[in-house]
Amino acid sequence: MSFIQELRASSTLKAPIFVPTVAFVAFIAFFCLFFPDQAQNTLNAVKQVLFTNFSWFYILAGAIFFLFLMFLCVSSLGSIRLGADTDEPEYSFMSWIAMLFAAGMGIGLMYFGVAEPFSHYLNPVHENLNESERIKDALMTSFYHWGIHAWAIYAVIALALAYFGFRYKLPLTVRSGFYPLLKNRISGFWGNLIDVIALCSTIFGLTTTLGYGAMQVNAGFKFLGVLDSSSFGVLAIIVIVAMTISVASAISGVGRGVKILSEINLVIAGLLLLFVIIAGPTLLLFSELTENLGYYFSSLLEISFRTFAYEADKQGWLSSWTVVYWAWWASWAPFVGLFIARISKGRTIREFILGVLFIPSLFNILWMTSFGSSAIWVDQQTGGALTAISSNTEALLFGLFDQLPFSTLTSTAAVVIISIFFITSADSGIFVLNNIASQGSEKSPKWQSILWGALLAVLGLSLLYSGGLASLQTMTLIIALPFMAIMIVLCFGLWKGLMVDSQYSNKKFTQGSGNWSGDNWKERLEKIVNPTNHKDIRQFLLKTARPAFKELVEEFEEHGLIAQMRFIDGKNPKIEFEVVKENLRNFLYGIECQSRELSELVVEDSNVPNIDESKIYEPITYFFDGRNGYDVQYMTKDELIADVLKQYERFMNLAMDENHTLMTADVENMTDSVEPKNESAL
After folding, report:
1. CA distance 329 to 505
2. What span, in angstroms and rounded, lies between the C-alpha atoms of 541 and 549?
3. Which residues contact 203 (CB under 8 A, 6 or more apart)?
4. Which of 307, 396, 427, 488 would be a feasible disulfide site paired with 114, CB 3.0-4.6 Å?
5. What does the alpha-carbon distance between residue 450 and residue 447 come to, in Å, rounded to a whole number?
6. Which helix (H) or strand (E) holds 11?
7. Cα separation of 641 and 543, whole Å?
8. Among residues 637, 634, 604, which one has the least CA distance to residue 620?
9. What confidence tens digit (pLDDT) does each residue in 277-324 have?
10. Could you list the residue ranges that cross the membrane (predicted)?
């Protein structure tokens, strides 16, 4: 067997997903490496087209995801469990919360924790603000970008993966969320297309994040005196070294060691956060946090739809900040969503949504307040020390530490945190890329991890070479547009799946089977395995319902009541039993032949006998008050009589209650005097 054949034999990659993705990524990398100027100009032109024509779509999509999740949370669908109804959560509540904290922490917060609030403070989106209003607005905008809306984008993917993966045992891939819409076609062209777009989106989202990490690691080394250059060559070395370590981690089987390293990293980050709170303006930070939380939540709905449609001068700001963020979050959604889905088996949808939306968001708000407000306070106290380096965004974090005690120690800790997040993000990213490209397979050969690591490194370096972070952001923006459209359709698929789930779980036994004993079980089995046709229902009405209703008419008349029966033949034959009242509405118990479409799976299943047509016919009851009826085909004559009497007893009990006169009284006064009608000729 040749080397190529051995690779094919061991591979878990699915060609319809892998080949188009690699071809597209290779084209972008080639274009950016060998034609950097043209690539930069092309990407800028495409970015401008997207900003001009589709900024509203990114904002609307983010708002839709947020509102959709909140609706699920407060509805009865929120009680559905991610897994079987008997499944318990795999992790304790506190462990689950801790892992959500971990999901909310990463290179992004280290890079933007100081940079974003400070940038909004120096260049506020709103004009004519005083000093306190500028600070408040800067923090509010940062919360918006890193808060609930970001996690709503993640949560949509995570919820779909967890729901269809754990409840229906489908693969943990994006295509599985479209099963209610596409059925078995998710295994064909449309399913492959969905996964290709998800895979490309994840690749460019990871590449953008790794670009931020490389630039900030470089800035940290410069601050510590380890490096004195920010050239492309230095960035290339950082990326290559980090990706080499990530790939080695991914293929070495030291997952437990990486997990422990990640947990240690979170502890260091927590200690760094605590240090900034203590070394900074502590009381001011707590006071601002309290007020900022109220301001944020009270403005949440308003800012969800903010597109500055009536303020054209602010739309450039919207595109370069909010729209880029929404695209970035969407590109990371399969990555973060898979992690969240894996740890959430056994949770209810309500618990999942509240935990995923609010726990990481609150942590991010605490982080942004601590680092952002401290940076603004330091800048005010030092006469603009941070303003002087504000053009070098990645250096702002280290500029803040330089103005606080133990600057060398804290800066070293920050570089360590960023480096570990860089490596663990790439390591986890390789796993997710393998998962998507392998259509949910969790075990893949080592050479695939090496391939993905090399692909990420080459793509990241080619985009950095052609235009720096701007090129990375533009590619993320481009690929996120179709993926966000897919996510909106995914919401519809998830909604449809949940509705079917609710109807399935609440489906009760037929009324006729409620009091079954062992009598006549063979006849009942024959009816179950031989679906009824139109002729069968007509025979049921004539041979079972008609004699039952005749006996009821006779017995009611024995008690001085006016009762009548009607048989109405035709396309949908029906039979009615009616008790005539003077002041009350007439009591009516009817049975009508109704048709129902059968599932294609049942019709096409060769192991389900006696089903040759796409519909069956059932005798369904209906009542005077318009309530939903039920199937009575399994009832005997005496059981049908008993069911009519149960409904009549219910009717009389309601009629005796003054509170129900609106339903039971003859409010239209249409029956002053009614003579019994004769049974129609059969």
Report:
1. 34
2. 10
3. 21, 25, 433, 455, 456, 459
4. 396
5. 5
6. none
7. 13
8. 634
9. 999 999 999 999 999 999 999 999 889 999 998 988 898 899 889 998
10. 12-36, 56-79, 91-114, 148-168, 189-212, 232-254, 266-286, 323-341, 353-378, 413-437, 449-468, 474-495
Token readout for 346 is 């056994």
Question: Residues 620, 599: contact at Cβ < 8 Å?
Answer: no
pTM of the model: 0.79
Which residues have a Cβ under 8 Å from the Cβ of 9 and sit 6 or more positions away?
Answer: 1
Tell me the per-residue pLDDT of 404-413, one tens digit each, with 9 for 90 and over: 999 999 999 9
How far is Cα 343 from Cα 41, in angstroms, rounded to an integer? Answer: 43
Q: How far is CA 610 from CA 109, 180, 596, in A?
A: 62, 27, 16
In angstroms, rounded to a whole number, what is the distance separating the alpha carbons of residues 67 and 61? 10
Half-sphere exposure of 225 (CA within 13 A, CB side): 2
Structural domains of the chain sorted by starting position, each given as residue range(s) with its CATH number in brackets: 3-501 (1.20.1740), 521-664 (no CATH)
Kindly list the distances between the CA atom of residue 3 and the CA atoms of 13, 428, 443, 450, in Å, as whole numbers in the listed order. 17, 28, 20, 16
- What single DSSP character describes residue 321? I
Q: How far apart are CA 69 and CA 554, in angstroms?
A: 57
At 366, list the tokens: 């605490």
- What does the alpha-carbon distance between residue 210 and residue 234 come to, in Å, rounded to a whole number? 14
Q: In 3-state terms, what secondary structure has residue 442?
A: coil
**How many whole angstroms separate alpha carbon 475 and alpha carbon 47?**
9
Structure tokens at 607: 């192991």
Neighbours of 619 (CB within 10 A): 28
Phi, psi (degrees; rounded to nearest 5) at 562: -95, 115
Q: Which residue has the tokens 């990555």?
A: 335
Decide: residue 528, CB within 10 A, 0-12 exposed, 13-18 middle, 19+ buried. Answer: exposed
Indicate the SS3 state at residue 337.
helix
- For residue 219, name the pLDDT band (cuts at 50, 70, 90): confident
Question: Taking a C-beta distance cutoff of 8 angstroms, is the pair 579, 563 a contact?
Answer: yes
**Inter-axis angle of helices 232-252 and 189-224, nearest 10:** 120
Q: What per-residue string of b and e applies to 105-141 under the rule 16 or more CB within 10 Å gives b?
A: bbbbbbbbbbbbbbbbbeebbeeeeeeeebbbbbbbb
Please give the backbone phi and psi of residue 241, each rounded to the nearest 5 degrees, phi first. -65, -45
Cα distances (angstroms) measured from residue 561 to each of 377, 557, 566: 88, 5, 17
Q: Which two tokens stand for residue 391?
A: 């053009």
- Could you tell me if residue 225 is left (phi over 0), alpha (psi between -120 and 50 degrees) or otherwise beta? left
Name the region of 610 (left: φ>0; alpha: ψ -120 to 50; beta: rest).
Answer: left
Phi-psi group of 87: left, alpha or beta (phi > 0 → left; psi -120 to 50 → alpha; rest → beta): beta
Contacts made by residues 498-502, CB under 8 angstroms, sequence distance 24+: 498/72, 498/77, 498/80, 498/163, 498/349, 499/77, 500/180, 501/77, 501/80, 501/167, 502/76, 502/77, 502/80
Residue 520: strand, helix, or coil: coil
Q: Which helix (DSSP H) or strand (DSSP E) does residue 173 occupy?
A: none
The model's pLDDT over 616-637, given as tens digits with 9 standing for 90+, comes to: 888 999 988 777 888 888 888 9
Alpha carbons 451 and 247: distance in angstroms, whole number: 9
Measured CA to CA, the distance from residue 289 to residue 151 in angstroms comes to 20
pLDDT tens-digit map of 76-115? 999 999 988 888 888 888 878 877 776 656 778 888 899 9
